[in-house]
Each structure stands twice: as C-alpha cells, then as structure tokens.
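Dear Dr. H.,

I hope your travels went smoothly. While you were away I took the liberty of generating a structure for the chain from your last submission, since the lab meeting agenda had it listed for discussion. I wanted you to have the full record in hand beforehand rather than looking at slides cold. The sequence, exactly as received, is reproduced here:
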Amino acid sequence: MHRNLVLILSLVALSYACSISCGNKACCADSNAGEKCYDSKKNTCASDGSFTLLCPYGNEICNKAFCYDPTQNSCQTTSTGADILCGVSEGICNNQCYDPTVNSCQILPNGNQFLCRVQEKLCGSTCYDPAYNTCYTTSTGAKLTCSNQETLFCDDQCIDTVYKVCLNDKSTGKQKICDSKSIRSLN
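The corresponding predicted structure, in token form, is as follows:
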C-alpha cells in the first residue's frame, strides 16, 4: 500500500514537472527521452527518486537503465553497488544471481563470496561435498580437500590406506608416508 502511494505521489509530482500539454493523458518527464504523453492505463511513469522512465504499466526501474516487471524479476544490488536483474526468487552472491534452491552463497571471514551447490561446504576457496570429500587444514594453515576414499591425512597430504601408510618418524617428530607393500615386506 505504501509503495503504491509513493508511486501515485511520484506520478502526480512528475505530471506537474512536464511543460507540454497532454490533454486527457498524463505526462512523464522521462530521464532518457524527455517529456512524453502516455496513457496511464497502459504505462507507468516509474521513478526511483532521481531517475524516471516511461515503462509498461506496473513496471519498475532497475539500474537507472531499464524497466522490469516485479512479478517476474527483482532488481538486486551487488557488493559493488551496481543493480542487476535477477529472477523474482533469486538471491545475489559474488555479484551474480543464483537460485537458493540449487546453490548457496558461502562467505569467507574476509567477506569474499563463493557460490556452491546447496549440499556443498567451503574448504578454503573450494566448494566440496562432505558426502564425498573431507576438508583438512595443513600445517601451514592452507585448506585441502581429500576424497573420502583417501581415508587418512598424513604429512599434509591425502593418502589411500590401501596403498600407503602413515608413520611417525621418531627422529624428526614428523609424519612420513610409506608404500604399504614395503611395510609388509618388513614383517
């Protein structure tokens, strides 16, 4: 209701801003095309407060550039301040539209955004599916994803325990990866 009242007041104010006579039609001071007469049953003089366009009836303005039907689309503001046209139920992530039923917007502590599938999580700057992968933090703090088939994380690497073993080197205090066949031959 409030939005409609603002639109009506904007139309009244805009109709007085025109210097041309439109008879029984309304006048729109279009920011691009200048003063235009229009049939208010077919068109709307849409304004965002500082910019005005003559649009099809019921439309609104996006990015001070074009008209859009708010029942079909939404005008979203990106992190850079630009407006882009998205679907009516879409969100915005990393300056692009996305469907929140398919994707999720993951945000790093530094504010960077990443678009991942709904079931995925973020490991560093990589999307991964926890059903198939695990996220590990290396000794340097970097993030690494390993396949869940690679069942062990050793010496900052993913290893498959069918083929490799992880041993603690007592002399250095570090982990060492060995071929599982060579360990079996020692027995």
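Two observations you may find useful: The chain has a mean pLDDT of 82. The first helix runs from residue 2 to 17.

With kind regards,
E. W.
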